[in-house]
Write a structure and sequence with these properties.
The complex is a heterodimer of chains A (501) and B (420).
Chain A lengths: L1 H8 L9 H17 L7 E6 L1 H9 L10 H16 L7 E4 L4 E6 L4 H21 L1 H6 L5 H19 L1 H13 L16 H22 L11 H5 L10 H8 L5 H22 L1 H21 L5 H14 L15 H17 L3 H6 L8 H11 L2 H8 L2 H7 L2 E6 L4 E7 L5 H11 L2 H4 L2 E7 L7 E6 L10 H12 L3 E6 L5 E7 L1
Parallel strand pairs in A: 1-3, 7-8
Antiparallel strand pairs in A: 2-3, 4-5, 6-7, 8-9
Helix pairs in contact in A: 2-5, 2-13, 3-4, 5-13, 7-8, 7-12, 8-12, 8-22, 9-12, 11-12, 13-15, 15-17, 18-20
Chain B lengths: L2 E4 L9 H10 L1 H14 L9 E5 L16 E6 L10 E3 L23 E5 L1 H8 L18 E10 L9 H37 L4 H18 L11 E9 L3 E9 L6 H21 L2 E9 L3 E4 L1 H6 L8 H15 L6 E8 L5 H18 L2 E7 L6 H12 L4 E6 L5 H8 L4
Parallel strand pairs in B: 8-9, 8-11, 11-12, 12-13
Antiparallel strand pairs in B: 2-5, 6-7, 9-10
């Protein structure tokens, strides 16, 4: 009787996939995911071919995107590396949308498809739905519509104003994408209907706003002199694209709209860059857990597990610093290890864990997981949850490279004195604020030649990369007048770096 | 329930627009890379896609980022020897020896952006700015190709060709036409009936009569079919003969003792280029290979390039054979004839004069274009001088150039077919 039951329970085997098999796996995995309390968007699985995967790569995984040569470059690079065999394609791409779209490649074997379903359609999907950054900053239900709007709008601009003009504008906007996001302010939700209704109004309205700024009427008598000489913007503005969209004097309405489109899309991708370790680790943890549960229930065989584990171990391998394969810390490896470790701390804490994580040790792991997944990003997640045991396992150490001293120095390592500092260093490594230069709009010369001043707030004496001059050219193209770049050191000293325009 | 969408049959080349924009934007660099790669590798590979490298810095998309210098603290995994506070020398060759700007053995700098052009993209760029001299002839050749084109509508045909719009339009028209008179009558009768009813009420015998007539009319109108076989219209197709463009290309090569492997190789590349070029213009191309030493013979491609025969040189033998082939197989003005001759210019003095006459009086009249390349490093000999006379007499139809090394091929080719 028991034997018969396992037989009916067994999911389709072999390596060839079929639609019915995928459906069966999705159902089985979905049931386990619900048992574990994963809250997901509904999802849609799309079967695609290799070429389509490369197409998707070229447009950062989005199913629709506007046209630009840089995506063509991306495509050619991917195709070339893939054909040479120096790179395998990712098994999956998943889109943070509602419903969540996960791509399955037709070349994958059935166990691989199951892995991808567990990883993308349940792992990433639940992260997208739960994590506060995604909830706050991205509107999953509107993104596809917005991309369609963006593509059509840009295509229309190309028709009206010529491909070259649009391309130049996009080049400049793309150059500012990493300084075109709000890091602290919450972006308003995207809505396709609102976008379309308001787009025309906005065009006209914005233009009048700009004119207001450059009012040439004689000043009202008795106007406070302090206001006249006050800096504009009053507070430094971190979002260059936003500032340009709102205040660049010479942009045409359609150009402002394009700037806005690029800015919106940059903003959409911003959370993904802040949660790489957490997100990939989360998805990896869940595909590992879900498929193991499937095995424990006797629904898949040993062959399935062998193939799955082989892919899994490849994904979470972390080569040491002196290996020829080392390039950086593998976010899958670190993330997976951290989530696993967190569960261990909950379920089987040691004395060390109790000392380090008094609130977490011994708690219900699912509740702790939900809390951690919802409320953190890479930087804070590592600062909060990286345990000494994991630092020992990874044998993390810090190298201090100070260009004013002739030798490199070893900073904190995985020992009692070093744990806290080491963890802080690693967390800082995932802080976008310290990884990317902090450049803000400082001032614009309203009464003179309209020069825009950007200020780079340097950190740890790190200079800007020398190609900033070229980027400055892009800013100047958008601004329409000269753009000056200054550097402010932590001690308050200001140096002129360059001017363009 | 879960939705699975099969996208495999959707359009594959979503990136093709982006791809062509990329190529358009960097055409200058790509053109240069294409020319370089032709010098480097065999032309036989040209027929496939081509790997091309262009300088990475040209296509970089810079963003604000921090550069080298300052204080950097990096956390690394896999500590095997370090303890806190110890110092050590900077590893030489920054970043584990992955330096930049190194040349790799295949001639692509490591900083190059390397990608593959498809055959069409490659040839487009390669032959850009080149044009065939002398317009081609279009002919209704003997073996004509037919194309089916639409030619209005017909009343008979097979069901797959039914034109729904036309058919329904006809049916609607017929229904209106046939139903017009009865409908008119029906309206009159209806009015009459109403009048009688209001006047005399149900008892009037007239009412009965009108009712019967209305009934009969209704029956008649219902009998008009919604669609009739008479309405059917079919898309009509006719076969139209298509003018085909066809060309024959004669490859003439000297295989006398003085033509060594390297010279043959140069000749071969030149012929291949010409073939690819013609291929873009003509739908159908015959290639005739004629090799000669003291006697000429027509051979297949394999023998043409790889034969080991040698002997003296009588160039005119090849020209005579070419003339004979034209007369027997490509006569009647149906073919565009192109000739390409490669030789090291070593010929008997009297024979060179004969060549002049053959070309001048016979062959060039029948050809669109004839190119002569002399593969030699030393000073030109008598054949070159005779051919110069031909060139003077047949501007635009006859061209000649000297090639010294493989790298000359593309410039010479480019020069020969430059748009004028």
């Amino acid at each position: 009787m028991a034997r018969k039951k396992t037989q009916t329970l067994l999911l389709p085997g072999g390596s060839e996939w079929s639609f019915s098999a995928i459906e069966a796996y999705d159902e089985a995995i979905g049931r386990i995911a619900r048992d574990y309390g994963l809250d997901c968007y509904p999802h849609q699985l799309e079967i695609i071919s290799t070429e389509q995967m490369m197409d998707a790569y070229a447009s950062i995984g989005m199913p629709v995107y506007y046209h630009h040569w840089s995506f063509g470059k991306q495509f050619l690079a991917t195709e070339s590396r893939y054909k040479r065999g120096s790179m395998g394609l990712a098994y999956e791409i998943v889109i943070n949308s509602d419903p969540c779209i996960a791509y399955l490649m037709e070349e994958n074997t059935l166990p691989m498809q199951a892995l991808v379903i567990a990883h993308a359609a349940y792992g990433h999907n639940s992260f997208f739905k739960g994590n506060h950054l995604f909830k706050q900053w991205t509107a999953a239900s509107a993104i596809i519509d917005y991309l369609v709007f963006a593509r059509n709008y840009i295509a229309e601009c190309e028709e009206r104003h010529g491909v070259d003009a649009v391309e130049q504008l996009l080049d400049s906007c793309h150059a500012l994408m990493n300084v075109g996001v709000d890091r602290y302010k919450r972006a308003p939700r995207l809505s396709i209907t609102k976008e379309q209704v308001r787009q025309r109004e906005r065009e006209e309205y914005l233009q009048t706003q700009v004119n207001e700024l450059w009012r040439t009427l004689p000043p009202v008598l008795g106007r406070d002199e302090a206001v006249e000489t006050a800096r504009f913007p009053r507070e430094p503005e971190e979002n260059l694209l936003y500032f340009i969209e709102k205040h660049a004097p010479l942009l045409e309405p359609w150009q402002r709209e394009v700037v806005r489109i690029v800015r919106k899309i940059a903003q959409y991708f911003h959370p993904q860059r802040q949660t790489q370790v957490m997100n990939e680790g989360w998805a990896t943890f869940w595909h590992y857990t879900l498929l193991n549960t499937l095995y424990d229930e006797g629904r898949v065989g040993d062959g399935f597990m062998f193939e799955f584990l082989q892919s899994h171990t490849n994904v979470v391998y972390q080569p040491p610093y002196n290996s020829q394969w080392y390039s950086s810390i593998n976010p899958y490896a670190l993330g997976f290890a951290m989530w696993r470790d967190l569960r261990r701390i909950c379920e089987a804490p040691t004395d060390e864990d109790r000392a380090w994580f008094p609130e977490v040790a011994g708690s219900d792991w699912r509740t702790t997981f939900q809390f951690a997944m919802h409320n953190f990003k890479d930087e804070s997640f590592i600062a909060q949850y990286l345990s000494p045991r994991l630092m020992r396992e990874f044998r993390f150490f810090t190298v201090v490279d100070d260009d004013s001293s002739p030798k490199l120095k070893v900073g904190p390592i995985h020992d009692d004195q070093g744990y806290h500092a080491l963890r802080q260093r690693l967390a800082d490594q995932y802080n976008l604020g310290s990884r990317e230069p902090n450049i803000q709009v400082w001032d614009m010369d309203r009464r003179g030649d309209r020069t825009l001043t950007l200020r780079y707030f340097s950190y740890q004496r790190r200079p800007l990369d020398t190609d900033f001059a070229e980027v400055l050219g892009h800013v100047a193209r958008l601004w329409g007048f000269p753009v000056r770049l200054e550097e402010q050191t932590p001690s308050g000293q200001v140096n002129r770096l360059g001017i363009s325009g | 329930m879960i939705r699975i969408v099969d996208r495999r049959l959707d359009s594959k080349n979503k990136s093709s627009v982006n791809r062509s924009r990329f190529i358009q934007r960097f055409k200058g660099q790509i053109r240069k890379a294409v020319a370089d790669s032709v010098d480097r590798s065999g032309i036989r590979d040209l027929a496939e896609g081509k790997r091309i490298g262009i300088p990475g810095r040209d296509i970089a998309e810079p963003q604000f980022s921090t550069g080298q210098g300052g204080v950097r603290e990096q956390v690394l995994p896999g500590n095997d020897r370090f303890s806190s506070g110890e110092t050590f020398d900077r590893p030489s060759g920054q970043g584990g020896g992955r330096g930049s700007g190194k040349a790799s053995p295949d001639g692509e700098g490591q900083d190059d952006f390397v990608f593959t052009l498809t055959r069409d993209e490659f040839l487009d760029i390669f032959f850009e700015e080149l044009a065939l001299p002398n317009l081609l002839k279009r002919h209704l050749a003997g073996v004509t190709e037919f194309k089916r084109v639409r030619a209005g509508y017909s009343q008979s045909g097979v069901p797959t060709n039914i034109n729904l719009v036309r058919t329904m339009r006809g049916a609607a028209g017929r229904r209106i036409a046939v139903g017009g008179a009865p409908r008119e009558r029906l309206r009159e009768l209806q009015a009459e009936l109403d009048r009688l009813l209001s006047l005399n009420g149900e008892g009037d015998p007239e009412v009965q009569r009108v009712r019967l007539e209305i009934q009969a009319l209704r029956r008649r109108m219902d009998a008009v079919p919604f669609i009739d076989s008479f309405d059917l219209r079919y898309n009509n197709h006719v076969r139209v003969a298509q003018p085909t463009t066809q060309a024959v290309m004669f490859c003439l090569m000297d295989i006398s003792g003085s033509m060594d492997e390297q010279k043959k190789n140069i000749a071969k590349r030149f012929f291949t280029l010409l073939y690819l070029f013609l291929n873009r213009t003509y739908e159908h191309i015959d290639v005739v290979f004629i090799r000669h030493h003291t006697v000429a013979e027509e051979v297949d491609e394999e023998n043409f390039f790889h034969s080991r025969e040698t002997g003296g040189t009588v160039v005119s033998s090849a020209l005579k054979l070419m003339q004979r082939v034209i007369e027997t197989r490509y006569a009647g003005g149906l073919w565009n004839v192109y000739g390409a001759q490669a030789s090291d210019g070593d010929n008997w003095l009297e024979d060179s004069a004969l060549c002049y006459h053959l070309l001048h009086e016979q062959i060039l009249d029948a050809t669109q274009f004839f190119a002569y390349i002399e593969i030699a490093e030393d000073t030109p000999q008598n054949l070159w001088e005779e051919y110069q006379k031909v060139q003077a007499a047949h501007q635009g139809v006859f061209a000649m150039r000297r090639i010294k090394a493989v790298s000359d091929i593309y410039p010479v080719f480019h020069d020969l077919f430059k748009k004028r």
